[in-house]
Amino acid sequence: MRAALALASVIVAAACARQPVTAAPWSDISCASAVGSPANASDVPGFSTAGWKTDFARHCVPLSEVTSGGPPRDGIPPLDDPTFEETALADAWLKPQEPVIVVAESGTARAYPLQVLIWHEIVNDTFGQRPIVVTFCPLCNTSLVFDRRAAGRDLTFGTTGDLRYSDLVMWDRQTESFWQQATGEAIVGTLTGTRLDRVASAILSYADFKRAYPDGRVLSRDGALAEVTRKTGHGRDYGTNPYSGYDRADSPPIAGFFGNAPLDPRLPPKARVAIATFSRPPVGYPLGRLSRSTAINDTVGGRQVVLLYGPGVASPLDRPVTSAGDDVGQAVLYDPVVDGRALTFRADGSHFVDDQTGSRWAVSGVAVAGPLAGRRLTLLAHEVTFWFIWAVFHPETEIRDR
Predict the structure, then answer these.
(1) CA distances (Å), 382 to each of 143, 186, 201, 216, 276, in order?
(2) Nearest CA to 168 among 198, 196, 143?
(3) Is the separation of the CB atoms in 179 and 172 below 8 Å?
(4) Closest CA to 293 of 345, 244, 243, 252
(5) How far is CA 290 from CA 268, 272, 295, 344, in A?
(6) Top-level CATH class of 265-399?
(7) Three-class SS of residue 94?
(8) Rounded to an integer, what distance in angstroms lies between the CA atom of residue 102 and that of residue 196?
(9) How far is the C-alpha of 216 from the C-alpha of 103, rounded, in Å?
(10) For residue 71, what are the contacts with CB-CB under 8 A and spacing of at least 6?
């Protein structure tokens, strides 16, 4: 399985030293990330503690569940000084169908292409006046953006080189605490139990980003290359995928990285699922069951929602070239209320039409024609990820079809 994945230099076979840690039992501190951890789980670290200043005595998950992914600390180098460019420049290297993480507020928008994030996983940025961290875990297909302010300070993040449930384990440079990317929660170290606030974001095709935000800016590939070369002496082969063939829906996560956690059999392990994360319990919509543009009007957690799904996004984890992956579509969850009136939507070709005004909308949530032209739907808290990683932390999730 590992050989077939051809993970190149990012994931390598590496032995890690298991060193004893004098620590209180992990169950002494409660945290959401420990959901599913057996009470008798070992606290012997599954990773090397050498060279860290981390307070390993303070943790809320079994240390045996954290395992080496191969690269050393920041061997997958985060970006700390991101630069951005106009879309006219990005057009030279970014294909219309490539996925980008979109962060937008007050008419300002930035796109973080996954063909760059696949090699860095973390971007420490400032959006407006807010310090944010943009993250992507290729092994879990989890794209999350957080406010990086916690415990009264601005944190900056790096990659530990370790994994838990195949998910990226980050570290902050201020306290050297370890953080679970999928939950945004510190699981080892001084800040154990602290959670980062989510920042609204969505995954769109580059083409849809440009149409929705003509003045938007794109994370510069040249700037990223210059920064990482300055740090490591080695560049990165942007536009290529070191995880070729990884995202077959019915294939399991890599056993040595996922540990002993059971897989939820309700969906294939790597089924892409759009999750309404604000709801308790969360509600998930399997995207593999949608074959064309679809609007799902629903009620979740007592509020009306609409999920807009459309084709046009290549999987960056499929083929050796990120832009050549199969079309896995794009799905975004919105509040359908505009000017105090709840709209209902239906798909109409590549666009969506609301029944109340007849306005035409793009998957980006922008009305492109009709009485509401120029208006934008409000994003609801959601994410699109592989089922296996979501289910391990949220086994209570309700699955809904259209």
Answers:
(1) 11, 21, 8, 22, 5
(2) 143
(3) yes
(4) 345
(5) 15, 11, 10, 19
(6) mainly beta
(7) coil
(8) 19
(9) 10
(10) 10, 11, 12, 14, 159, 161
In tens, the pLDDT along 323-380 reads 999 999 999 999 999 999 999 999 999 899 999 999 999 999 999 999 999 999 999 9
Type of residue found at 130: R
Residue type (1 letter), 174: Q
Residue 353, token pair as written in the block: 């039409």
CB-CB contact of 285 with 331 (8 Å)? yes
Tokens for 234?
């080695």
CB 321 within 8 A of CB 241: yes
Please state the separation of Cα 71 from the chain's center in Å: 20
Give the sign of the dihedral formed by CA 228, CA 234, CA 240, CA 242.
negative
| Both tokens assigned to 326 | 């199969």
C-alpha angle 74/241/97, rounded to 5°? 120
CA distance 332 to 205: 12
Q: Which tokens is 365 given?
A: 């949530």
Task: Kindly report whether the global pTM for this prediction surpasses the value 0.90.
Answer: yes
How far is residue 256 from each of residues 138, 226, 349, measured CA to CA in Å? Answer: 16, 34, 44
Q: Specify the 3-state DSSP secondary structure of 261.
A: coil
**First vs last C-alpha separation in the chain:** 34
Tokens of 356: 């109340």
296 contact partners, CB below 8 Å, separation of at least 6 = 285, 306, 307, 309, 402
Summarize pLDDT for 185-195 with one digit per residue, the tens. Answer: 999 999 999 99
Q: What is the pLDDT of residue 112?
A: 98
The first and second tokens of residue 342, run together, are 């709840």
**Per-residue pLDDT tens over the stretch 246-288:** 999 999 999 999 988 899 999 999 999 999 999 999 999 999 9
CA–CA separation, 89 vs 83, rounded Å?
13
Strands (E), 15-129: 66-68, 84-86, 99-105, 108-113, 122-127
Contacts of 373 (CB under 8 A, 6+ apart): 359, 367
Say which DSSP state 287 is in: G
Query: How does pLDDT run across 91-105, given as a tens digit for each residue?
Result: 999 999 999 999 998
- Judge residue 260's burial from the number of C-beta atoms within 10 Å of its C-beta, 0-12 exposed, 13-18 middle, 19 or more buried: exposed
The token duo for 50 is 């050498």
**What mean pLDDT comes out for the span 6-31?**
55
